[in-house]
């Protein structure tokens, strides 16, 4: 009982320490790390633009599918195996991986545009706001405060993998699909926080590989965006079905 009391006391005291001044306190992040983060997020924005181009190319020529997924995976492996001093080549591979990824999720984006284009805009804005908020929370928090969640999130990711593997073999129900969808969204939102703090911590110790760090955040962003878009499409389609039943 004393342990529970001390836990809640610690939580309340940590909440009391939060103030407007703490929101402006980036003194834990050195100027070198701040410059590195600017490079990371600039590269991330460029990768998102490349991904949008890939989705647009799919809409024009229907190129998205298994081959573009292989192309994305091959680009990522090639990037990770390329030495850091070959900066231009690694940036080009990052853009290629993003373009292939955009083409791979192009069918989902095309479906959203055909159904209601406002859903696509809402999903992207919602994902961007969530990504920005959780990244900012990771930057403002004390160093290494959320890194302990990495093992928990890895366990959650392995659960998602085995659930998906089991459903692909034995068949899955709608309840299992919804659980995978929402639980996966929770896991990857958590990865935004953990990966942001991990990038900051690595940069403090001299790891300034902004291309690899941008790739990490890009995969988090896409994973969250895809799940938000599927959830919004599913909810919108259910509403349409209810309206049709009422009319009949």
From TrEMBL:
<protein>
    <submittedName>
        <fullName>Bax inhibitor 1</fullName>
    </submittedName>
</protein>
<feature type="transmembrane region" description="Helical">
    <location>
        <begin position="93"/>
        <end position="113"/>
    </location>
</feature>
<feature type="transmembrane region" description="Helical">
    <location>
        <begin position="214"/>
        <end position="233"/>
    </location>
</feature>
<keyword id="KW-0812">Transmembrane</keyword>
<feature type="transmembrane region" description="Helical">
    <location>
        <begin position="63"/>
        <end position="81"/>
    </location>
</feature>
<dbReference type="Pfam" id="PF01027">
    <property type="entry name" value="Bax1-I"/>
</dbReference>
<feature type="transmembrane region" description="Helical">
    <location>
        <begin position="146"/>
        <end position="163"/>
    </location>
</feature>
<dbReference type="InterPro" id="IPR006214">
    <property type="entry name" value="Bax_inhibitor_1-related"/>
</dbReference>
<keyword id="KW-1133">Transmembrane helix</keyword>
<dbReference type="GO" id="GO:0016020">
    <property type="term" value="C:membrane"/>
</dbReference>
<keyword id="KW-0472">Membrane</keyword>
<feature type="transmembrane region" description="Helical">
    <location>
        <begin position="119"/>
        <end position="139"/>
    </location>
</feature>
<comment type="similarity">
    <text>Belongs to the BI1 family.</text>
</comment>
């Amino acid at each position: 009982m004393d342990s529970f009391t001390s836990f809640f006391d610690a939580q309340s005291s940590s909440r009391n320490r939060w103030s407007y001044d703490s929101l402006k306190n980036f003194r834990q992040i050195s100027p070198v790390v701040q410059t590195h983060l600017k490079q990371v997020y600039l590269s991330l924005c460029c990768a998102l633009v490349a991904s949008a181009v890939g989705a647009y190319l799919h809409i024009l020529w229907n190129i998205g599918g298994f081959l573009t997924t292989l192309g994305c995976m091959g680009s990522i492996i090639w990037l990770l195996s390329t030495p850091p001093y070959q900066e231009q080549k690694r940036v080009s591979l990052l853009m290629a991986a993003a373009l292939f990824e955009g083409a791979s999720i192009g069918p989902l984006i095309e479906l959203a545009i055909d159904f209601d284009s406002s859903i696509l805009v809402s999903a992207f804005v919602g994902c961007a706001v969530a990504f920005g908020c959780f990244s900012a929370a990771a930057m403002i928090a004390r160093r290494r405060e959320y890194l302990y969640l990495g093992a928990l999130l890895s366990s959650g990711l392995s659960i998602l993998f085995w659930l998906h593997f089991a459903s692909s073999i034995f068949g899955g129900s709608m309840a299992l699909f919804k659980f995978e969808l929402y639980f996966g969204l929770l896991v990857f939102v958590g990865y935004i926080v953990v990966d942001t703090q991990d990038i900051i911590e690595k940069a403090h110790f001299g790891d300034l590989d902004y291309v690899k760090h941008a790739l990490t955040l890009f995969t988090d962003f896409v994973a969250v965006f895809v799940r938000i878009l599927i959830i919004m499409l599913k909810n919108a389609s259910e509403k349409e079905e209810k309206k049709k039943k009422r009319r009949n």
